[in-house]
Write a structure and sequence with these properties.
The chain has 206 residues and is an alpha+beta fold. 76% of the residues lie in helices and 10% in strands. Strands 2-1-3-4 form a four-stranded mixed beta sheet. It is rod-shaped and about 160 Å long. The N and C termini lie far apart (107 Å).
């Protein structure tokens, strides 16, 4: 009886230990799986965050470079426009100075006489600034006596500061020799050259 009891006790112990060990192994295996899953998720999130951080850094770097390029471009364009404006103003001022009484007394009769050589030329008017009309009326009337007899008119135009315009009386066509118009032609020619000079100069900056 004692032997059987001992055997029963031993069996119970053995079965209990085995069950406990099996349960412990299952718990450990489950814990390991959970730990692996947690580590994998942490690694995935870390990699995802790293990619996001890298993409954001690249975006910020590109935005910074683009902003610097745009600021540099704006500065160059502003400087170029300022130079062109000063150049245009200088050209217009110098062109206006060149239209003195002596030049106009010679130039206007020559242009008018060339115009009226065309048999189809319509009656025309010479338009001058109010100041030049007062100063040159007598000399131009004498130089263009025959043309005036055929209908040529010499008139003041308040929109003119210097130079002159030759216009058909109906206003359908005119040649603009005003200081502003001639200066604009010079500026249109010089501004691209100014831009090229600035481009070449900028290219030499280290």
């Amino acid at each position: 009886m004692d032997v059987q009891l001992q055997e029963l006790i031993d069996k119970i112990k053995k079965d209990g230990v085995g069950a406990a060990e099996a349960s412990a192994q299952a718990i450990i295996a489950d814990a390991e799986k959970r730990a692996e899953a947690i580590v994998a998720e942490a690694e995935r999130k870390a990699l995802e965050n790293e990619k996001k951080a890298k993409a954001e850094a690249e975006r910020l770097e590109k935005a910074s470079i683009d902003a610097i390029k745009q600021a540099a471009r704006n500065t160059i364009l502003s400087f170029r426009d300022g130079i062109n404006a000063e150049l245009s103003a200088l050209i217009q001022a110098e062109t206006a100075k060149s239209y003195d009484d002596k030049l106009l007394k010679t130039l206007i009769p020559e242009v008018v006489k060339e115009w009226v050589k065309n048999p189809d030329a319509a009656s025309i008017s010479v338009l001058l600034s109010e100041k030049d009309t007062a100063a040159l009326s007598s000399s131009l009337t004498a130089a263009l006596k025959s043309e005036i007899a055929k209908g040529l008119e010499i008139k003041a135009d308040s929109s003119l500061d210097a130079g002159f315009r030759i216009s058909t009386k109906d206003g359908a066509a005119y040649y603009d020799f005003s200081a502003e118009s001639v200066a604009a032609l010079f500026s249109a020619y010089l501004n691209p050259k100014t831009a090229q000079i600035m481009k070449d100069a900028a290219g030499g900056i280290q």
